[in-house]
Design goal:
The structure is a homodimer. Chain A is an alpha/beta fold. Chain A is built from 17 helices and 13 strands. In chain A, helix 10 links the parallel strand 4 (195-202) and strand 5 (231-238). The longest helix of chain A is centred in the middle third of the chain and has 17 residues, at 211-227. Chain A binds chain B through residues 3-4, 7-8, 11, 34-44, 46-47, 167, 169-173, and chain B through 3-4, 7-8, 11, 34-44, 46-47, 167, 169-173.
């Protein structure tokens, strides 16, 4: 087999076999196939795509390039969740304790964020004392004991994905749906869960810009999951405006606690309840999906999910003594409406970038995050506002420069006609 | 400027500027832009193409990556010719002495062949004594003295093309028409001629398979030539069957001599006369194109072109004492018709591969060529044959193995209905 022939085959729009795809991934990981051939192949995939079988074979080869976490020592059904990343997306932090409080097992490996969307690990690390460098034994014991544990990703998972992603990043081959699907699914499958819920964000602040792309990505990921005998459900959800009100690590953790206490933003609560319903039902902790969703809603309002949250952070060394001290910045600057009317848009990307520029996110891998800073919306899309009303509060430890204000100015569109609220979940594909 | 942005721009089908293309080529030649980004960019060009301006900018950047031959010391109009390569293509060897005999100046840098089509240099090197390592002074003096000189390509011409071609070869990005056009034109322009005739072959034995592709390639090359103020004419010619009768280095030289003596195959004579006509007319050695073509035909039949050939090879140290000794092989094996009828096809590719397998061509750069061996057709497409007639003679120095016979068997299609002869020149684009 010669790599150049396989490049030409894909370039011509033909379908590659399991053996051929494995030859490429193995050869690349072993250093036998050079970067320049793989990048040409990736660009051919960008243009010619991959069918569901090819994407599953690619996922399998990537998965086999490294370790696969063995969760068989955990009793019961293991659930996991992945989000394609959004601004103010603290879903996992709500969902984890919520499903754990209902008996599902969440054994989650989580990553850090880069750019305008934060990573779950960054958000949880903002809680003093939390540690994520768990041994495999600690990790498994904790899930068996309290149903939930979150650890940082080890370096041995899916090395092929790390290599391929680094190459895609510099060769203009990131936005290929089968490549995105294989990258996500190889990591999820390597993490060992039985039930996987995927939150595919669409809109301005998300990687997928259109419902069509999100649907294609969702379908191919669900199909890959089926090829591995996993229960995979994809939720296509809106990321036009930030999720909930808070953007910024500790500000988001505070909103998570409010949500687990039944007092969170309705969009965030609805999303978490729906995903939790699927997880709990597939984990066989409810007789029907409807019953599972009802149980999830209840546990957000009866204190059980919140109690599980505190149990979880305590198990990993974390503690929040006072919420007031937890989110204290040097200044809180109100950002006010320049005109009266109905909020038509709050561009999630702009809010995410503004929070990053305040110090709340990383522009490069080396940047340190200020966990306190961020932006908390006071109003959401559809709200009626009067000129001078506070639209958002800026939590800052340094002076707020003009760039940040410009990002906010350009984030908001206020119009005269009423604007309807839309559902957070657009489609569910399983 | 970042390479990844330029890859994405081309991937999206946008047009790159002169500055952007120059950034890429300079950066690549200087080792600042890595192979893996360039190969992704080349694959994006394969899918999205390049417009005429981009192709001209690419040609210019490649041209500027190395030396450009200065032919200003040669008096008069310098002509040059390029063929995309075909089986039995000895056009340059006829054309050179022919146009030189009519006063045009041919200062030609020529390359070696690889695969089933031989290079002009390989064919001329089969003449004992010929040397091609001329100094620049020798080269220019010879053209001034006898109107013709052929030298091997120096290593400093268009290094960007050498790098890009080597990368394209292993990344499935060879068959991109703007890349082919820029590669050919950068080398031709670096060679310094004023008038350039391009022989774009189509058909089974050629790189271009369809008239549409050949037309697109021709138009873009003519357009690039215009951007550099050169007179460029492209001839789209048939390579369904081999050109002339002879395939194999010395066998072809022998046919060249016959053609220069007015006794060559009619397809080869017609092609050479037509291209020579354009060269001589643009070199201002005739009042009209028709007059130039007439003069070219005459010089093939009055001995002047042949005399120029012997003058030319003598000037570079070559001599052919006896044509009989020149093409002597251990055996000459007739290949006979298996049925009676009209020859519908003689696949040029098969004849070329058969000759290569006899030892007449290189499979890899290191292979040594046996200049004696090859195949001489006895019949051409359209001829009426009877079972047992000799279709071709195989000139061999080793035993002729089954692979070679199979290639010949599959080359010929003989049918019951009469088959018309077609013109060698399909279109002329200027």
């Amino acid at each position: 087999m010669r790599m150049v022939d396989l490049i030409e085959k894909k370039r011509a729009g033909e379908v590659l076999s399991e053996k051929e795809i494995d030859f490429i991934i193995k050869g690349y990981v072993e250093g036998k196939i050079p970067d320049y051939q793989v990048s040409a192949w990736l660009m051919a995939i960008f243009f010619q795509g991959m069918n569901n079988n090819e994407a599953a074979y690619l996922t399998k080869s990537m998965l086999n390039s490294g370790d696969v976490i063995d969760l068989t020592m955990i009793d019961g059904v293991k659930v996991d969740k992945h989000s394609t990343g959004g601004v103010g997306d603290k879903t996992t932090l709500v969902l984890g304790p919520l499903v754990a409080s209902l008996g599902a097992k969440l054994a989650k490996l989580s990553g850090r964020g880069l750019g305008h969307t934060g990573g779950t690990l960054d958000k949880m690390e903002s809680i003093p004392g939390m540690r994520f460098a768990l041994t495999e034994e600690e990790f498994i014991n904790q899930v068996n004991r309290i149903n939930i544990a979150v650890a940082g990703q080890t370096k041995k998972l899916v090395p092929a994905d790390k290599l391929l992603y680094a190459l895609r990043d510099v060769t203009g081959t990131v936005p290929s749906i089968p490549l995105i699907a294989s990258s996500i699914m190889s990591k999820k499958l390597a993490s060992g869960a039985d039930v996987i819920c995927l939150d595919v964000k669409i809109g301005d602040g998300a990687f997928m810009k259109t419902i069509e792309d999100a649907r294609e990505l969702s379908k191919i990921m669900v199909s890959i999951g089926k090829a591995f005998d996993k229960k995979v459900t994809a939720f296509i959800t809106s990321m036009e405006e930030p999720l909930g009100f808070a953007v910024g690590n500790r500000l988001e953790v505070k909103e998570v606690i409010e949500t687990l206490n039944g007092k969170g933003p309705i969009d965030l609560e609805n999303l978490c309840v729906s995903i939790a319903g699927y997880m709990v039902f597939y984990a066989e902790k409810a007789d029907s999906l409807d019953a599972a969703i009802k149980m999830a809603r209840e546990n957000l309002h009866n204190g059980k999910a919140l109690a599980k949250f505190y149990e979880f952070i305590a198990a990993q060394g974390g503690a929040i003594d006072s919420l007031d001290d937890f989110v204290k910045t040097e200044q809180v600057l109100p950002y006010k409406a320049k005109k009266s009317g109905y909020i038509k848009t709050i561009k999630a990307l702009n809010i995410g970038l503004a929070s990053m520029k305040l110090g709340g996110g990383r522009e490069t891998k080396e940047d340190e995050i200020d966990p306190m800073v961020g932006i908390v919306l006071a109003k959401k899309v559809g709200d009626n506002v009067t000129q001078g009303d506070v639209l958002a509060n800026i939590y800052a430890n340094n002076s707020v420069n003009e760039d940040i204000i410009t990002l906010l100015d350009e984030a908001y569109q206020i119009i005269d006609e009423p604007v309807g609220k839309t559902d957070i979940i657009k489609e569910i594909i399983s």
